[in-house]
Amino acid sequence: MSSKRLYNLVGVPLEDVFQITCHGPVRKAGRGTRVSVFPLERTTVQGSTPQDWDLFSIMSVSLSSQLSKALRQTYLSLPQGSQCMVTYIWIDVTGEELRCKTRTLKDEPQGLEGEESNSDMFLIPVRLFRDPFTLDPNKLVLCEVLNSSREPAETNRRRCCIQVMEKIKEHEIWFGMEQEYTLLGVDKRPFSWPTNGYPAPQGTFYIVESHYRACLYTGIKIGGTNAEVMPSQGEFQVGPCEGVEMGDQLWMSRFLLDRVCEDFGVIASLDPKSLKNWNGAGCHINVSTKSMREEGGLTHIKAAVEKLRNKHQEHISVYDPHDGQDNLRRLTGLHETASIHEFSSGVANRGASVRIPRHMAQEQRGYFEDRRPAANCDPYTVTCAIIRTCLVPEEDEQGS
């Protein structure tokens, strides 16, 4: 890069401070139109031009994303008659990534039935969604995975979650999850960050808005979205959802995020700590039961928080896919996190393990927020762990 083009250089190569594990899209980053997602504050010297400023953005996205979208639209606008394209989506053997395949059905499905086989595994449809990429009448279908013996696959934690939810259904538990993520260029650097140094604060961006609209079309209970502290980092909220629906909705929203990013030629990473000395990425979970929402519910909220305190390490071990090793990088006690080594709680304290929002404390009822789950957590595992600790009697746990 010419010395005439400076991007907030601080003279420290990112390689010296970079730690990224990419959790990329289902398919390779591809189709789309290049957009200025996070505008940088460029510092120029005599002789530089606006055309020079776009160099880094061009290098950050996949080459195929710069192809004309009009070509794709030509084919998507072709009639398909009464036939329906159904995309089956499932969690793969890593327990972190999603895979998919598409089949043609003679008619639009009105419900869930049947199964698909895949390499001696069976896909069992569990939830149906509209397809925002190929539009109605086409569908997205979230599936459970069973092994050749028709038992839940090792990474199928949904089945166990359902069993636990059934034990406490009278509590009418609601969940809401706040999914944070980091946008990466194809060079695996945070998108629109300069090759050397750090970017300016966040700007207006379109990937977030596109994902938001895709979720609304699909039927995801997306509650909102916002930029996060680190540039190129965003968050969206899903919920409230009751029971196992929380996991279903979050996994599908992650699939949509991957597909939207593919169209823009970038990658969505759920690594809990993409970059040293910056805020990490979590998946905070809000929890509320019927008794917590009623008059005097704050007493029940505090009781649940104390139960979580007593099983802090057990929860840490299931709040990321690697037995707490991912959160070891993220939960440092800095950057709006609590220390992984000790449990803390408080009202309106974003540096606590579990937070009670100020307005909940004032109203004496509502919900609490567990801030420990990592961005790449399995929502089935997280919701199941919270229920076991807060609601399932110990004698039932011992007998199960």
Automatic annotation (TrEMBL):
Q: What class of enzyme is it?
A: ligase
GO biological process assignments = glutamine biosynthetic process
Compartment list: Cytoplasm
Where the record annotates domain GS catalytic, the positions are: 157-400
What domain of life does the native source organism fall in?
Answer: Eukaryota
Known EC number(s)?
A: 6.3.1.2
Q: Name one GO molecular function term.
A: ATP binding
The primary site where this protein sits is cytoplasm
Q: Does the keyword Cytoplasm apply?
A: yes
Could you tell me the keywords of this UniProt record?
A: ATP-binding, Cytoplasm, Ligase, Nucleotide-binding
> Gene3D superfamilies under this entry?
Glutamine synthetase, N-terminal domain, Glutamine synthetase/guanido kinase, catalytic domain
List, alphabetically, the GO terms of the cellular component aspect.
cytoplasm
Which PROSITE patterns does this chain map to?
A: GS_CATALYTIC
Q: Name one Pfam family in it.
A: Gln-synt_C
- Keyword Nucleotide-binding listed? The answer is yes
Q: What family is this?
A: Belongs to the glutamine synthetase family.
PANTHER family hit by this protein: GLUTAMINE SYNTHETASE
Protein name, per record: Glutamine synthetase
